[in-house]
Amino acid sequence: MKIALAQVNYHIGNFEANYLKISALIEQAKTDKADLIVFSELAIGGYPARDFLEEPSYIEACLQQLLQLALFCTDISCIIGCPVKNKAEEGKKLHNAAFLLSNGKIMFQVNKALLPTYDVFDEYRYFEPAKSFACIELQGHKIALTICEDIWNIQKSMYTQSPMEVLMLEKPVLMINIAASPFHYSQAERRIETLEANVLKYRLPIIYVNHVGAQTELIFDGGSLVMLSDTTITAQLPYFEENLQYVDFLGGRNEVILASDNLVTLVDQKKNFSVKPLLSMPELADEVLAYSDLLTGRIYQALVLGIRDYFKKSGFRSAVLGLSGGIDSALVCVLAVHALGSENVHVLLMPSKYSSDHSLKDARDLVDNLGIQMHFVPISSIISSFESSLKADFIGFEQGIAEENLQARSRGTLLMAFSNKFGHILLNTSNKSEAAVGYGTLYGDMCGALGILGDVYKSQVYQLCKYINLKEVIIPTNTLLKPPSAELRPDQKDSDSLPAYELLDKILFLHIECKWGVPELTAHGFDCEIVTKVIKLVNNAEFKRYQAAPILRISPKAFGMGRRMPIVGKYS
Amino acid sequence: MKIALAQVNYHIGNFEANYLKISALIEQAKTDKADLIVFSELAIGGYPARDFLEEPSYIEACLQQLLQLALFCTDISCIIGCPVKNKAEEGKKLHNAAFLLSNGKIMFQVNKALLPTYDVFDEYRYFEPAKSFACIELQGHKIALTICEDIWNIQKSMYTQSPMEVLMLEKPVLMINIAASPFHYSQAERRIETLEANVLKYRLPIIYVNHVGAQTELIFDGGSLVMLSDTTITAQLPYFEENLQYVDFLGGRNEVILASDNLVTLVDQKKNFSVKPLLSMPELADEVLAYSDLLTGRIYQALVLGIRDYFKKSGFRSAVLGLSGGIDSALVCVLAVHALGSENVHVLLMPSKYSSDHSLKDARDLVDNLGIQMHFVPISSIISSFESSLKADFIGFEQGIAEENLQARSRGTLLMAFSNKFGHILLNTSNKSEAAVGYGTLYGDMCGALGILGDVYKSQVYQLCKYINLKEVIIPTNTLLKPPSAELRPDQKDSDSLPAYELLDKILFLHIECKWGVPELTAHGFDCEIVTKVIKLVNNAEFKRYQAAPILRISPKAFGMGRRMPIVGKYS
């Protein structure tokens, strides 16, 4: 039985475009004499479709597409994910289902049982979990078909059901898992470990097909694969790319699956980055915040894909951003050039009287290195006109945050003027450390349609720049060496008001990723005063982050929809 | 058995403040010789605590407060909600629990079974549902104690369990339901209908205790009550206020509960506003969008409480907003004065060359009527300085959105300067109709910490103004009569680019509240071209709304966390 693994970049709700892709791949697989083609979870409609799922016309459109595809599956079978109405009177209105299409019709429907409802996931918001389980049958083979999280209970105890335990009673010869499992920097290892654990426990080979491509914040990295029952990976689809590959299943439990010619060699990523459970592991912070080629390269690729797909899927081509001469905007600029091409990246240099000469030089050097379009728009006269308009009301008050923010907001306004005038999308350059402690100006440097670095700690910003400069110096050395500064007042340094980033990032990681509060942090030797201050800053900045741009997620816990905090809550 | 109903305004995570309130009420109830005092769902810690619930130290703090309160319950029993660890190895880490405290210790724990995970609710994100059920016992009486949604399955079929069905096997004599059930304009009727349905089905009286007070977007309206088994409401606590009331339970099924002296008369609200199921009911749109004293007055009260609590709980006192002379800012201004006092509301008049004379006059009239502080900051010179800075880059391009937005963003920057300088909170004045179709400028008129009208359609804005002006004209008549305009270019009217609000609001209501797509709307006689345009506008504005301020929720479907849409999705 020749099986095709189709790793596809879907566009949520864009039924026409998705249909073209899916049907072309089925056609290709037919031509290549495949018996079965496997698409990923909720391939029809795309994932995550969120509250589109609550619109009856959306669900009807999904069903129509499924039926249309079924008609197309005559000389081939197809497994594909699709949301579908729950026919029972009780329970949620929908199922997250996988269908086996064959002989022009729907042969089997399998519903997902374990519905991730944590972090960025909201599946129980829409779907009723399956409570009964049966294998599907194809060419006389019993196959245990499951959907994503359905096999993840092997490592987590978040559910009280276990689909595979029930399916094993039927003695299947193969597992197929279709997934929509988003990227974070250690997800690839977790995924392989989970597949290994299943393969070892059930003594069966597994075919795993995942989404690829970015849907605003969520980046899907693909990495579909076939693992034999001895845990050998015999086919590995690439990360961050669409791909179609074939394997031959010879039948019979534990029998070998042969990968076809276009087998991609698996990089043994586990050697470079070991996965450890969160929460109990302060060492995890050190590991993530330290430099590694593998991890940093992976984050780099994810961010590039995240930018590229945001533009492609929202129908835009060109980006604009402000270059300060600092490290964050330099990094975003390089990522944007990689994702969109140098001809599509426009930068503004908007110096004030507090901007240093070296900042301007560093920004210009980067522009030269990248060969992009630069616009020079000084803001001094704009600031003066704001200040003179406010003079009567502000007289007798000391200069302070209000005046500093005028600079940031004038820059934001100029960038948005370019965005509005030329149809560029404004990229936001705030990093995760700043976003965490509220070190940024709402409607100023927090402007932008997409937060490129909002899930990247300052320490990781440095790592990514180092990675970029490995072969040749693209980001000016001075940008990397000088102390970080917002340059909103004379001789300002980030370190004036924040702990050194090395310490800050570690505290933030333990608080945000590992959920440690003051008690856990002080018990592990962190200074109580610093920790209390940092956590208070994090809590007090909720109102700012609520209005931040969506953030490309590269960690297990990004700001945005995966972290939902009260705004007027007072716990710290 | 004398029972106290404690309807309390909690502050999420503010353990000290909450403890002071709870313990004082217990003390009061002891003094008044009550046998039992009932607090609402998740009273300990507050609701919704969201991802605070994932912090082990937060859960530990809740437990410590529960234990401390138990010690305090010596001559009285207490029912109170508190999040607590799930001791089982499988399933979610927590339960949403209700405790009976008595004799200085925890006597019973009841876990919530039906976990709302839709709209603004995320309970399955945190809690494992109860699977077994038992009555609690107090003074020899069996009591069916449930938590909020646990009794709502009587009208919905969203769950496959039914706690009350199981509890009835023990033949209880009384139902107690503790809730954290947020306000929307028709929730009071739905709540009473749900309680009636339970009372009639199980032939038991019910004591219902709800939260009161606002937690950023969510406004809890209280309305705790006691309903006899013949559906007579024998005690009704007020809406939108903290309150403590007593009833005497004489024991025995169907026996009468006597309300004590401070019984509040129930307004028969059902006569004025009938509740109908969503989705199948286009008439619902007409009902909500038409004026009624009761409904409008209720929304008015909710918005005032929403503003007041946001300020109180975030530790601020004064507000700033821009007055355009238009109806939205006028309404927000009146609400803010009611919530915060005229001395705490500061307004900016920021005319441009496109501002009409009547706008300035209307704004000044309102300022006079309210006796608030006004600042006059014209923006022409600021706009000029932006335009001259951009001249070199914009030369040869026609004036358009970019220039219009400069005005809105300059105003936003000025308002934020006042906010930063004087510690005022900026109130956002965008209404739901505008927010829906993206008729607003990001970082411009979309600035603000809290969206006061973001869940109020333009038609309802007019209704609220009419309501305010019933006794005396506070909002200038001209503000109500003139055609709406953003005044960003000469002679601009909202109706230039949008359908009339009467039609627009109806389409929006059916699309947003009722989830109707193009097929359903055209099937009901709406013009296909208009409907397609409106829904496309709604979808294309997702990126803007993502960065909007949190919005006070007054409808069953508000923008914000209760409506989660893909940003780069392309379905319409």
Most extensive chain-chain interface: A-B, 96 and 97 residues
Task: Give the N-terminus to C-terminus distance of chain A in angstroms.
Answer: 58 Å
Percent of residues in helices of chain A comes to 25-40%
Number of helices of chain A: 18
Walkthrough of the structure:
The structure is a homodimer of 572-residue chains. Chain A has 572 residues and is of the alpha/beta class. Helices cover 37% and strands 17% of the residues of chain A. Chain A contains 18 helices and 20 strands. Chain A has helices at 15-31, 56-72, 163-167, 187-202, 282-289, 293-314, 327-340, 357-370, 380-394, 401-422, 432-437, 458-468, 477-481, 494-497, 501-513, 518-523, 528-540, 542-546; strands spanning 2-7, 36-38, 77-85, 94-102, 105-111, 136-138, 141-147, 174-179, 206-210, 212-215, 218-221, 225-227, 233-236, 243-249, 257-259, 319-322, 345-349, 373-376, 425-428, 450-451. In chain A, the strands form four sheets. In chain A, strands 5-4-3-2-1-14-15 form a seven-stranded mixed sheet, covered by helices on one side. In chain A, strands 6-7-8-9-12-13 form a six-stranded mixed sheet. In chain A, strand 17 (345-349), helix 8 (357-370) and strand 18 (373-376) form a beta-alpha-beta unit. In chain A, helix 1 packs parallel to helix 2, helix 6 (293-314) packs across helix 12 and helix 7 (327-340) packs across helix 12 (458-468). Chain A is elongated, with a radius of gyration of 26 Å. Chain A starts with a strand and ends in a 26-residue tail after the last helix. Residues 261-280 of chain A have low confidence and may be disordered. Chains A and B meet through helix 2, helix 6, helix 9, helix 10 and helix 16 of A and helix 2, helix 6, helix 9, helix 10 and helix 16 of B.
